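Render this sequence as a predicted structure.
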Amino acid sequence: MDGTGCNRMAKAFGFNEDELKLLLVAVRHMRRTFADARKKDPALEAYAALYDQLFEKLRDMAGPLPESVEKIIE
């Protein structure tokens, strides 16, 4: 999907561009939180996988990000 379609989808869900970027950073933080725990407890894998999938969807919806945001989510 192109950037225009992604932005329309984000707006359809009621997110402006800044809110979408904040969600992306928040989900990235949760993925990092699960990183060590998922190695120790396989039962957490399903939850961690949901955050992984959500991160990828939000990343696609966000389109091009400022370099400062890219550095945070790497």
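Summary. The chain has a mean pLDDT of 77. Residues 31 and 51 are 6 Å apart (CA to CA).
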